[in-house]
Amino acid sequence: TEEEEKKDEL
Amino acid sequence: MNIFRFAGDMTHLISIVVLLLKIYATKSCSGISLKTQELYVIVFLARYLDLFTDFISVYNTVMKLVFIGSSLAIVWCMRMHRAVKRTYDKELDTFRHYFLVLGSFVLALLLHEKFTFQEIFWAFSIYLEAVAILPQLVMLQRSGNVDNLTGQYVFFLGAYRAFYILNWIYRFFTEPHFSRWIACLSGLVQTAFYADFFYYYFISWKNNAKLQLPA
């Protein structure tokens, strides 16, 4: 499964 | 993190410092929309729910806490500080911001990445941030004359948005799977709201004159 994209922006 | 994203975060931080400086140094919040400030508190609290679940970096965590803390401090000053709250131009700040909150929440229920508590609130915060500046812009337009620090505050907020767009363009071309249409489209809408203000800001800057918005 694709790794979830973390919300790295503010 | 690329240079545009960092510049965006820094101009965002500067805008907050400018606003705090104005309030503390002049003991006045004239020209500042309490409604916009309250919307920012909601935006930050809704978006940074992930403080409890995800750790990205020390930088991210510190910035999130600074944004939550500073927005709360500004609202507290405008509502509770005896000298400051007297200077609030309540009669100019009449935008019905509850509709923005309601509309953003309904939109988040319809358009989101996943139907989970955190994702709904994240999308809600993105939509609400896009429109949160509107009460402030309407207030500026109504008062016509914009004092220096208030003008700088809105200028830096707009610069923050512009840098974030450059950051997305950069990421789009440098990262293989960069797709976040919710944040990017909302960001474009949000930045468009500043276009008019920027136009008059640069005219006043070019003519070395006080910033004035047409009625």
TrEMBL record, chain B:
Q: Which Pfam families match?
A: ER_lumen_recept
Name the GO terms of the biological process aspect.
protein retention in ER lumen; protein transport; vesicle-mediated transport
For this UniProt record, the keywords arranged alphabetically read as follows: Endoplasmic reticulum, ER-Golgi transport, Membrane, Protein transport, Receptor, Transmembrane, Transmembrane helix, Transport
What protein does this entry describe?
Answer: ER lumen protein-retaining receptor
Question: What does the sequence similarity comment in the record state about its family?
Answer: Belongs to the ERD2 family.
Question: A cellular component term (GO) from this record?
Answer: endoplasmic reticulum membrane
Specify whether Protein transport is a keyword of the entry.
yes
Give the source species: Punica granatum
Instruction: Note the topology in the membrane.
Output: Multi-pass membrane protein
Query: Where does it localize?
Result: Endoplasmic reticulum membrane
- The superkingdom listed in its UniProt entry is Eukaryota
- The answer to keyword Ribonucleoprotein applying to this record is no
Transmembrane segment boundaries: 56-77, 98-115, 121-141, 153-173, 179-202
Sample GO molecular function, one term: ER retention sequence binding
